[in-house]
Amino acid sequence: MSHLNINFDFPINDLEGKEIGRAHKILATFLYGKPDRIDMLKAHDWVTTLMQTSKLAMDRTDAELLEQSIKSSTLNNVCAPLLIAIKSAKEEIEKKLEPEN
Fold it and tell me: How far is CA 54 from CA 13, 36, 37, 43, 90, in A?
């Protein structure tokens, strides 16, 4: 099974365009609060990995789980860039899985 490699090493900006933090740190903080539907040990592993590498490697099921947890948050300016990063990783893996003609 192919894993998605998601890079969360990018800035998150406020509405005025000022950086409020790095995506991997914001996501790690979100996961540290143990969002619904994510196993505590899995969340802890993701937090540790994010803080060490700014990236996550996961299968599609975990990516969907992470997406749903992020979507349940109310911080749109923070969530949208995180969801875009996940979507981009999914599209990249889909291209790799497409048969060549």
Answer: 17, 22, 22, 14, 17
